[in-house]
TrEMBL record:
Its EC number is 7.4.2.8. Residues 1-621 form the SecA family profile domain. It comes from the Bacteria. The gene is secA. It comes from candidate division WWE3 bacterium. Residues 807-883 are annotated as: Disordered. This is Protein translocase subunit SecA. Belongs to the SecA family. Residues 820-829 have a biased composition (Low complexity). It is found in: Cell membrane; Cytoplasm; Membrane. GO terms for cellular component: cell envelope Sec protein transport complex; cytosol; plasma membrane. InterPro entries: Helicase_ATP-bd, Helicase_C-like, P-loop_NTPase, SEC_C_motif, SecA, SecA_CS, SecA_DEAD, SecA_motor_DEAD.
C-alpha cells in the first residue's frame, strides 16, 4: 500500500509519467519509418532540418527569451527526430532504441540530469537529442571524460549520424582534431554488416582536420578540458581567423547545447579544480630545495596534520626548530620564507606518493582521486608542484603565471541548454540544481538488476581486512568466477597485487602507471578465472562482458577494498557487475583504520571492539556501523559540496569581470568584418575620448595621432589601433587575475574582524575592476603615443646618421693610431656602407617601434617610490603615471 502511495507522490515518477504521451507518439511512427528506404530516411532528415531552420528564422536570436523559444520550436519535431534515430540505429548497428533510452533522450533534450544505470546504453540514448538540437546548425557538443571515449563515441555513433546526413567532429588534447569519414566507414564495414566486434576508438573511421572544422561539424565530441581550454584560447587570439569555436552557421563563440556524459564526474568531482592557461614566469629558486630539506628533519610532534583539508601546520615547537635552522627570529616576517615553508610542509606531509601523485620520467604527475588516472598536463598551483618536485628530488620546473582561467561551473553555465547523464546522479541532485539549475531524474532499467549486493564486512584494522580480501579472492578464483577488485590508490593497488603473488593467484593489475592497457585488460575482466585489480579508472565508460559459462557461476564478483568518500563512487564500482540484467555480486571490505573511518570517527567503534575483546580477524556486520559509514560519507560529501560552492561563489565575482573583458575583446576582433561590424564603434573616436581624460596635452596627442594616420594606409592604421587595444587589455587583465588571486588568498582573515569575507571580496574586487578599466584606458593612450612609425625616409635618415657617426668614429680611431691631431689620417677610411635597398612602391614598413623600452614588472617604478613597478604604478588598478 505504502509503495503505491509513494509512487503517486514521487516527483521522479511524475516526471516520467509526463513523458509517456510523447513516447507513445514516437512508437506510433515506428512502423511507418520501417517501410521507408535509406534514401527516404535521409530525405526525411533533410526535410526536418529545413523546417526547423525555417521556423527559427522567424525568431530574434538576440532576444533574451530566444533559448526557450528555440526549445519550444524543437519540441514540435521531437517525435519525428527520435523515430528517425531509432530506425537508423536498427538499420546501421542492429540496435533498436528501448523505451527507457528514449525517455533518457527526452529528459536530456529538456535540459536535465538523467540517471541511467550502468550498461543501459547512455551513449545510444544521447544520439536522439543530439541530432534534434544539431539540426539547428548552432552546434551540439557531447562532453566525455577522456580522449579515448571521445574518439570511440564519435566513430561508433558517427555511423548513425552520417546515415542521416550529419557531420561529426571530435576534439582531443594537443589540438588534435578529427571528423568522421563516411567513406572510410563504408570501406571498413564488416562483411556481415555487424559492427559489434569492430574496435572503435582507434581513429580508423576518422580523418584529421583543423580544430575549427571539428567545431563546424553538426555534432562535436570531446573532453571537458578541451572544450574549456578552447574557450579560453579563443579569448586570447588577435584575429577572427584564429577562433576555433565557430558553429556550422558561422556563429562565433556560441555555446548552444551540450550533453555531459558522466556528468557527476565532470561537474562535481572536477569542479574543485579550475582550468588554467599559464605561461612560464620567473625561474624557480633554490628555496624549494632548501625548505624541502628542512621539513624532512621535522618530527611528528613538530606539526599538525589536517587530513580533511590536505594541509599541514607547524606548532610552536616546529616553528622554533625552523627559525633556529634558518637563523632568524621570526620566519613569518619574511613572506617568501613563509610561502615556501607552507608549501614544503604540505608537500611533505599532506600529499602522498602513489596516492595523490606519481613520479614518472623525472616528473611529478597528479593522479585523479576519483578515476585513478594520471592528469596529464595538470600542475598544482601556488608553488605546491615545485615543492613536490623538490621533495622527490626531480627537476624543478619554472613557476607559472596565470594567463586565463575559468572554473568548470562557469564554463558549462555558458551553454544555452545544458544536460547530463550518469549512472550515479541522485545523491548529488541538490548540487546539480543549486549550481547548474539541472533537475535530476532517475530512469528505470530495461531489465531488472540481478546483482546481489552483499553487506559490508568490517574489520578492526587494515591488516585483518587485507587478509580477508585475499582469502575471498583466492576462494572465488578456485571456482573460476571472475573477480574485479577496486582500490582507491596506486599504493593499495600494488599492495593487493603483492599479496596475490604470494598466494600464486594469477591476476592483471590496472592503474595510472599502465593505463595504456586499460581497454585490453577490461575486455578480459569478465572471462572465466580472471582476477583484475584496478583503481577507480576501470569504473567509467567501460563495458565488462561476461565470458562463456560465467553467468552460471554467478557473474562478475566485485570487491571494494574500502569505502570511498563519495557514495556514488562506490555505486559506480558495484555497477561494473550485473549489467543489462546479467547476474553478479558485490561486497565492500572496511577497516576501522581506513582513511574515511579514521578521520570521521571509526576509532570509537574500534574502541568498542577492543572493550568486548573481539579478535581482529572477526568480521562484523552491524547496522550501527553501516549507518556510521554512511554518515561519514555524507559528511565528506557535504564538506566537498561546501568547497565547490565556496569556489563558485568567489569565481562568480571574477566571472562577471571576465565576461566584460571578453566582450570588449570580441568587439575589437569583429571590427572591420562586415558580418559583425555595424560601424557604431570606432577606435579612433574611442582613443581620442580616452586621451581627453588621460593625456596631459590632448592637442599634442591628437596631432601625433593625425600624423600617424597620414603616414599609414587606413587598413594599417586601424590594425595598429586594434593591436594597441588588444595587447593592453591582455597584459593588464593578466595582472588583474594575479591581483585577485592574492586578494582571495588573504580575504579570509577579514572574518576575524567580524567582516564577511565573500562580501569583502565582492566589494574589493569591484573596486579593483573599476581601477583596471581606468588603467586600461590610460595605458592605451600611453602605448599609442610612444609608438613611432618607420617610413622609408626615416630609415634613410637613420642610415645616413649611422654612416656619419661611423665615419667620424673611424677618423677618431685613425687620428689616435697615427698620433696626430691633424685632419689628415694616415689610414684610409673604410668604404661607405650601402643602405639596404627598399621597394620604392612600399610607402610604409609594417614594423612599429617604441621610443622607450617597456617598463619591466620588476624594474624600479619611474615615480621614484623605490618600489618595483608591479607593486607600484604597474599594479592593476593603481593610479596611472601621467605622460
Amino acid at each position: 500500500m505504502f509503495g503505491v502511495i509513494n509512487k503517486i507522490f514521487d516527483p521522479n515518477q511524475k516526471r516520467l509519467d509526463k513523458l509517456k504521451p510523447v513516447l507513445g507518439k514516437i512508437n506510433e511512427l515506428e512502423d511507418s519509418y520501417k517501410n521507408k528506404s535509406d534514401e527516404e530516411l535521409l530525405a526525411n532528415a533533410n526535410d526536418l532540418k529545413n523546417r526547423i531552420r525555417d521556423d527559427l528564422k522567424s525568431l530574434n536570436i538576440k532576444d533574451e527569451n530566444y533559448p526557450q523559444q528555440e526549445k519550444d520550436t524543437l519540441n514540435k519535431y521531437v517525435t519525428e527526430a527520435f523515430a528517425l534515430v531509432r530506425e537508423t540505429f536498427a538499420r546501421t548497428l542492429n540496435e533498436r532504441s528501448f523505451d527507457e533510452q528514449l525517455m533518457v533522450g527526452l529528459m536530456l533534450h529538456e535540459g536535465n540530469a538523467a540517471e541511467q544505470k550502468t550498461g543501459e546504453g547512455k551513449t545510444h540514448a544521447a544520439v536522439h537529442p543530439m541530432l534534434l538540437n544539431a539540426l539547428t546548425g548552432r552546434g551540439a557538443h557531447l562532453v566525455t571524460v577522456n580522449d579515448y571515449l571521445a574518439r570511440r563515441d564519435a566513430e561508433w555513433m558517427g555511423i548513425v549520424y552520417s546515415k542521416l546526413g550529419l557531420s561529426i567532429g571530435c576534439i582531443n588534447t594537443n589540438s588534435v582534431s578529427y571528423i568522421f569519414d563516411p567513406e572510410k566507414a563504408e570501406e571498413l564495414k564488416p562483411e556481415d554488416g555487424n559492427w559489434r566486434k569492430f574496435a572503435f576508438g582507434h581513429g580508423d573511421l576518422l580523418r584529421e582536420v583543423s580544430r575549427r572544422e571539428a567545431y563546424a561539424a553538426d555534432v562535436t565530441y570531446g573532453t571537458n578540458n578541451e572544450f574549456g581550454f578552447d574557450y579560453l584560447r579563443d579569448n586570447m587570439v588577435h584575429s577572427l581567423d584564429q577562433l576555433v569555436q565557430v558553429n556550422a552557421n558561422g556563429e562565433v563563440g556560441v555555446h548552444h547545447f551540450a550533453i555531459v556524459d558522466e556528468v557527476d564526474s565532470i561537474l562535481i568531482d572536477e569542479a574543485r579544480t579550475p582550468l588554467i592557461i599559464s605561461s612560464p614566469a620567473e625561474e624557480s629558486n633554490e628555496l624549494y630545495v632548501k625548505f624541502a630539506g628542512l621539513v624532512k628533519r621535522l618530527n611528528s610532534e613538530d606539526y599538525e596534520l589536517d587530513e580533511k583539508g590536505k594541509n599541514a601546520f607547524l606548532n610552536d615547537l616546529g616553528v622554533k626548530k625552523i627559525e633556529k635552522w634558518l637563523g632568524t627570529d621570526n620566519v613569518y616576517e619574511n613572506f617568501e620564507y613563509a610561502h615556501h615553508l607552507e608549501q614544503a610542509l604540505k608537500a611533505q606531509y599532506a600529499y602522498e606518493r602513489d596516492v595523490d601523485y606519481l613520479v614518472q620520467n623525472d616528473e611529478v604527475k597528479i593522479v585523479d582521486e576519483f578515476t585513478g588516472r594520471v592528469m596529464e598536463g595538470r600542475r598544482y598551483s601556488e608553488g605546491l608542484h615545485q615543492a613536490l618536485e623538490a621533495k622527490e628530488e626531480v627537476a624543478i620546473q619554472k613557476e607559472s603565471k596565470t594567463v586565463a582561467t575559468i572554473t568548470f561551473q562557469n564554463y558549462f553555465r555558458l551553454y544555452e541548454k545544458l544536460s547530463g547523464m550518469s549512472a550515479t546522479i541522485m545523491t548529488e541532485a541538490e548540487e546539480f540544481f543549486k549550481i547548474y539549475s539541472l533537475e535530476s531524474v532517475s530512469v528505470p532499467t530495461h531489465k531488472q538488476v540481478a546483482r546481489i549486493d552483499h553487506p559490508d564486512r568490517i574489520y578492526k584494522n587494515q591488516r585483518a581486512k587485507w587478509k580477508a580480501i585475499v582469502d575471498e579472492i583466492e576462494e572465488l578464483n578456485k571456482t573460476g568466477q571472475p573477480v574485479l577488485v577496486g582500490t582507491t590508490s596506486v599504493e593499495f593497488n600494488e599492495l593487493v597485487s603483492q599479496l596475490l603473488k604470494r598466494r600464486n593467484v594469477p591476476h592483471e593489475i590496472l592503474n595510472a602507471k599502465n593505463h595504456e592497457r586499460e581497454a585490453e585488460i577490461v575486455s578480459q575482466a569478465g572471462q572465466k578465472g580472471s582476477v583484475t585489480v584496478a583503481t577507480n579508472m576501470a569504473g567509467r565508460g567501460t563495458d565488462i562482458k561476461l565470458g562463456d559459462g560465467v553467468k552460471e557461476m554467478g557473474g562478475l564478483f566485485v570487491i571494494g577494498t574500502e569505502r570511498h568518500e563519495a557514495r556514488r563512487i562506490d555505486n559506480q564500482l558495484r555497477g561494473r557487475s550485473g549489467r543489462q540484467g546479467d547476474p553478479g555480486a558485490s561486497r565492500f571490505y572496511v577497516g576501522l583504520d581506513d582513511n574515511l573511518m579514521r578521520i570521521f570517527g571509526g576509532d570509537r567503534i574500534a574502541g568498542l571492539m577492543t572493550r568486548f575483546n573481539l579478535p581482529d580477524d572477526m568480521p562484523i556486520e552491524n547496522s550501527m556501523i553501516s549507518r556510521s559509514i554512511e554518515s561519514a560519507q555524507q559528511k565528506v560529501e557535504g564538506h566537498n559540496f561546501d568547497i565547490r560552492k565556496h569556489l563558485v561563489e568567489y569565481d562568480d565575482v571574477i566571472n562577471k569581470q571576465r565576461e566584460i573583458i571578453y566582450k570588449r575583446r570580441r568587439r575589437l576582433l569583429e571590427l572591420g568584418d562586415p558580418r559583425f561590424d555595424t560601424g557604431e564603434f570606432n577606435l579612433e573616436t574611442e582613443i581620442i575620448k580616452k586621451a581627453e581624460q588621460y593625456a596631459e596635452d590632448v592637442e599634442a596627442f591628437t596631432n601625433d595621432l593625425n600624423a600617424k594616420k597620414a603616414i599609414l594606409p587606413k587598413l594599417n592604421f586601424d590594425e595598429l589601433l586594434k593591436y594597441v587595444f588588444l595587447t593592453t587589455i591582455d597584459h593588464l587583465w593578466m595582472e588583474h587575475i594575479d591581483a585577485l588571486d592574492e586578494l582571495r588568498a588573504g580575504i579570509g582573515l577579514r572574518g576575524y574582524g567580524q567582516r564577511e569575507p565573500l562580501v569583502e571580496f565582492k566589494n574589493e574586487g569591484y573596486r579593483m575592476f573599476e581601477q583596471l578599466i581606468s588603467s586600461i584606458d590610460y595605458e592605451i593612450v600611453n602605448r599609442f603615443h610612444k609608438i613611432r612609425i618607420q617610413t622609408p625616409e626615416s630609415v634613410r635618415l637613420q642610415d645616413s646618421n649611422v654612416l656619419e657617426k661611423t665615419t667620424a668614429q673611424q677618423k677618431e680611431v685613425g687620428q689616435f693610431e697615427s698620433g696626430t691631431t691633424t685632419s689628415n689620417s694616415s689610414q684610409s677610411p673604410a668604404p661607405n656602407p650601402q643602405p639596404a635597398t627598399r621597394n620604392p612602391q612600399q610607402n610604409v614598413q609594417p614594423v612599429v617601434k617604441s621610443d622607450a623600452e617597456q617598463i619591466g614588472r620588476n624594474d624600479p617604478c619611474p615615480c621614484g617610490s623605490g618600489k618595483k613597478y608591479k607593486k607600484c604604478h604597474g599594479a592593476p588598478g593603481a593610479e596611472p603615471l601621467k605622460l
